[in-house]
Structure formats: structure tokens, C-alpha cells
Amino acid sequence: MVVPFSAGGGSDLAGRAMADGLEKAAPRTNFKVENREGGGGAVGYSYFLSRKGNARYLLATETALLALPLTQKVKFSYEDFTPIMKVGDDYTLLVVPKDSPFKTCADVAEKSKSQRVVAGISGTTGIDNIVLSLTEEKKGAKFDRVPFESGSELTAALLGGQVQIAVLNPGEVIGQLKSGDVRALCSYAPKRYTFEELKDVPTAKEQGIDVSFAQYRGLIAPGDISEQEKAGWIAAAKKFEKSPQYKQYIEKNYMQSSASYGDDFGDYLKESNTTLKQVLDK
Fold it and tell me: Which domain holds residue 136?
């Protein structure tokens, strides 16, 4: 199981959860998780491209699969790989240290118009950068971005005072939210979370910022595997969806369940690629 980001972030959590779930769904299968970080995911995806035709490899995929080819000179696109499973949708939060003067996302956007606001993001092409770009577009804001290789590194930087705000998935920062070390100012979700720990966090839209964008979590195989191999992994993924491990992963990481498989997942990637291209071209 290749994870194109470093240990501790949302992609790493997803990769390890899927590896564990698939081992139980396909008992004769044994997974090793490999973190191949660098270049905001480009190193891991490029390595995976070289595994073409080898169904013994899988990759824990997310929005960088679509964003990287639209923003950087890489040798792959989503069409080079075999879609297996869309696991769910992972919306993101804008968070600050507990003693930050910022009280709302609207405060942050307004302050950025006249003063430097340093924003930490995971990579340069993921959902963190996308929601900030959309906020800039909607509100005339301007953020000074500092990219990190994973959510865990970004959380450490926020707590260490290297950045003023950070965009993080709930699963990456829930521990710090519970301890009170950080505060969530808003979620970039279409409606408030129903999870007890997040139900009081307002959406960005409630604060006058009409921005909502989900990072998908999914599973892909290399390109050019056989139809039989593809069908085998899809069958295992469907067993994973029905397992306690899947439910635990979704709930533990505060995600929305939205599983799809094979060609249906491929159609989702195609549609999302079109939408993302419109966003990133603005």
C-alpha cells in the first residue's frame, strides 16, 4: 500500500485503515505500507506509475491525483491508473492555536486584506490550497502559504507558532481540538458536522464565505492490470465497506461515507477533474 505522503497525515491514516481492512476482507493477503513522500504527492504517484501492470501494489489516493497534473509537470494523470474504490469524503477545517486573536473565518479573511496572514497547508495542490484559493476569490482575501508534507507536520508547525492558521482534516487534528490546544473557526463543508466533537463548528458559508469542497479518499491500482485482477480488488473493497473496520475508519476520522467502485469511481474522477480544472485555472 503506497502512501504518497509522510506518516501521520490524513492520507497515511487512510492507507493504513484500508490495508488493515483489506487484509481482513481478503484473509490470504498481507499488506506492507510504504510512505513515499515528496513533491506534494508527486514522488509517490510517480513511483506508483512505474508499477504499471503489477496488481500487487495499491495506493491510497486523494485530491492530489487530480491537482498535481493540472499544476505541475508530472508524467501521470488519473487516467494512468485503475480506479478501485472511493472510500468517502473528507471535508476540512480552518484551525488556529488556542490563544489566537482570530475568532471566525470571516475575521481571518478580513484581516488578510490589510495584514500578512501566514497559512499552513499540506502540499501545494491539495484541498487545503483549494479552499484557501476559493476563499481568496470569494472574499478578496490574500494568504501567505507555507506548505508541509503532511498534516502531522502542519499541526506541529501551528502549535510551534510557525504559521498563524492551518487547514486540516478533522481526523488530523481532533486530538488537539479535544485537548483545547487548537480551535476550529469554521468547516469548509456544505453543512455542520453531526459528530458530537464538531457539531458546534460553523460552516464557512454561515460566516459569509460560500465555499465548500471535499477531499475524496480512495484506492487505486496501477494501470494495465487485468480485468480479473481489477475485479478481485473491487470484490475485496466491497467486503471492506461492509466491515467494522470501514465504519470505524469513517467515524474515527470524521468523514462522510460515499463509497463507489471501479468505473463509477472513474466517472467521479473524471467529473472532479473537470471541476478542479475550472477552480485552478481561475
Answer: 93-207
